[in-house]
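User: tokens in, sequence out, please.
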């Protein structure tokens, strides 16, 4: 096994492992996932995995299949303990993500597929970001931090570096860093307010 293969396996393992702190916090009723985001991510990564297997891109499929397992587990746990009722904002985000998935399937070229994936994922992030901003103690920053680390390892595992291969992986690192930082900073901000 080469270094890049090892990095890819580690990226997949860390992605699946990133669900552990989130899942434990759901069970302890500390974290309440926004189902709109996690459902969008499960659909997106599941479709991506199927497309990658169909195109014989098994290396990339390992990472996205791990992400599908991670997000599906959180959806299942979240259905019992999360925000199952969609707000109007959640519904708009979910509909937009589904439209994005349809457009991705219609315009099935690599660059458009990657850009559509980023846009769909970003739309899927919005309900969780909104929740993290308002109720940071109901989110688990460690899960997003681990997902960002997995994204960095996935970048290291790439055999070719170009717009198509890098765009989504770099986005994953950045968006998870933003989510982690938001949760941590908003928790600190709320603690300061409570001390006043």
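Assistant: Sequence out:
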């Amino acid at each position: 096994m080469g270094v890049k293969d090892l990095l890819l396996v580690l990226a997949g393992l860390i992605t699946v492992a990133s669900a552990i702190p989130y899942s434990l916090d759901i069970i302890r009723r500390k974290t309440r996932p926004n189902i709109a985001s996690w459902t969008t991510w499960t659909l997106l990564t599941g479709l991506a995995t199927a497309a990658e297997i169909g195109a014989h891109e098994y290396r990339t499929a390992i990472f996205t299949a791990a992400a599908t397992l991670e997000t599906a587990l959180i959806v299942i746990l979240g259905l019992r303990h999360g925000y199952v009722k969609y707000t109007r904002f959640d519904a708009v985000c979910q509909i937009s993500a589904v439209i994005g998935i349809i457009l991705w399937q219609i315009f099935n070229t690599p660059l458009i597929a990657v850009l559509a994936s980023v846009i769909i994922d970003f739309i899927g992030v919005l309900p969780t970001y909104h929740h993290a901003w308002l109720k940071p103690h109901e989110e688990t920053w460690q899960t997003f931090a681990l997902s960002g680390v997995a994204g960095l390892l996935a970048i290291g595992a790439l055999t070719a570096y170009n717009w198509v291969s890098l765009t989504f992986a770099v986005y994953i690192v950045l968006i998870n860093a933003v989510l982690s930082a938001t949760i941590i900073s908003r928790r600190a901000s709320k603690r300061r307010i409570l001390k006043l």
